[in-house]
Amino acid sequence: MCAALEAATTGAQTLLLEGASGLGGVSAISGGEIYLGGGTALQKATGFEDSPEEMAKFLTAALGPFADEQRIAVYSEGSAEHFDWFVKQGVPFKPGLWDKPSWVPFTDDGLMWLGENTFPFYDLAVPAPRGHRPQTPGFAGVLLMERLIGRVANSSIDVRTNTKILRLVVDGDRVAGVVVSHFGATLTLRARRGVVLCVGGFIYNDDMLALHAPHLLGHSKIGTEGDDGRGILIAQAVGAQVKNMSGGQSALNLPVQLMIRSLLLNRHGQRFINEDTYGGLIGHAALVGGHAPIYMLLDETGFEEVPEDERLGRQPAWVSDDLGELEMEIGLAEGSLQTTVGLYNRHATTGEDPQFHKRSSFVRPLSPPYGVVDVCAHEYVPDGEGGTVLNTGFGAFTTGGLATSIDGQVIDLTGNLIPGLYAAGRTASGIQASGYISGTSLGDGTFFGRRAGRAAATSLP
To answer: What is the DSSP letter of 412?
Structure first.
């Protein structure tokens, strides 16, 4: 939609093809965070100073190693203008900060922290909250997409739903159109200037996962069945290059308020990260770092501090006053929990965590009785649609895709641009490398989607 809206502003005749029966996709069921900064109007109204340089420093550290620094710099520099563009589309943002660690705020405040004020990032870049959220409590993706859908409906864009792309049409060295399926009929459509592919990632294509990102197989899938990789595959068929295909997000299915009060333990009963950092970074570190299965150890005080409706049904699988007994019940090495908790408690009495640098406001000694949550218990849980799904503790989606220029033009295997072919969103490889921060999917997709739409509309036919 952002690519189409930007293309339409140039006066180009714009056709938007949607495989589903309506617009919105996985973005409409997302948390709705848009990672923006560099001094947006919302940041200023809420009393925070920021710059493109500090935003780029944080993203380079959080999304690396091997993050695309040029793409991050362009994104950070244009971030404040991109926020203004959302406002012009009718997306509301309320000046206000949600200051508690969480996946999504329970208020309609427009700003939230996404790990910028946690170790090691506060030493690498001046912290500023950059999670920009449309004005609604909880999941805000639906409001964001409603407003964009409204803008598309009131534009000159021709929208065709239930229309799935099958392959590209090439005329010489140029992509000149698409072949699509519409209610069983096959149609061939010419693109006078360009084709922009924004058709999702490949989390629902197990064959592609096995080939490129096998560590994401078998976990809960974050996305829709439209994330089948077709956009990547049909571009590869005309010589497109791919990038970062092993990349992905693997969030732990845990309530954040329990996590920050706990010690997150790996399969050896040892801590592996500061529990107050952004939850997406924790899940990524847990899965990619080979730490699974993961255990969450709390004491009764920490568990009871979190209201029941915020625990998301999580209950300890093992409870005891004795850490040695817990070691035996879980199957951990003798002395492992006693050593981990002993080291933590020794420094927590003074509010310090020299091992992983959790913020002092979340540091206190743990005392019995203890409870341990089996984060990666392979059990079937409700899927919200009347069925069940196997819960491995992780929810995953892909971030790799087509290699593109800053303006979204797809790059071929020899490093040259493919005339007439553009991509954005999860179909393209964006600013993420081997890390992930919430809001960088919606932020990257909409920002570079606009650039791709504008470039395609103004390219020579």
So the answer is: B
Q: One-letter amino acid identity for 120?
A: P
What are 132-144's pLDDT values in tens digits? 999 999 999 999 9
Give the closest residue to 149 by CA, choosing from 46, 28, 59: 28
The phi, psi pair for 163, rounded to 5°, reads -130, 105
The answer to whether residue 158 sits within a structural domain is no
pLDDT given for residue 461 in this prediction: 77
- How far is 123 from 139, CA to CA, in rounded Å? 31
Domain contains 332:
yes
10 within a domain of the structure (yes/no): no
- How far is it, in rounded angstroms, from Cα 137 to Cα 132? 13
The residue from 104, 122, 138 where one domain ends is 138
Classify burial at 172, counting beta carbons within 10 Å of its beta carbon; exposed 0-12, middle 13-18, buried 19 or more. exposed
The helix/strand count (H/E) of the chain reads as 15, 23
DSSP state for residue 246 in the 8-state scheme: T
Outline where 31-126 has alpha helix (H): 41-45, 52-63, 69-77, 79-88, 121-124
11 burial (CB, 10 Å; 0-12 / 13-18 / 19+) is exposed
The CATH number that applies at residue 370 is 3.90.700.10
Query: H or E stretch including 243?
Result: strand 242-243
DSSP assignment string, 201-242: -STT-HHHHHHH-GGGTTSEE-S-TT-SSHHHHHHHTTTB-E
- Residue type, position 182, single letter: H
Largest CA distance in the chain: 73
Print the domain residue range for 127: 33-138
DSSP conformational letter for 316: -
Sheet-wide strand order for 417-423: 195-197, 417-423, 409-411
Q: Which residues of the chain have pLDDT under 70?
A: 380-389
Overall domain count for the chain = 2
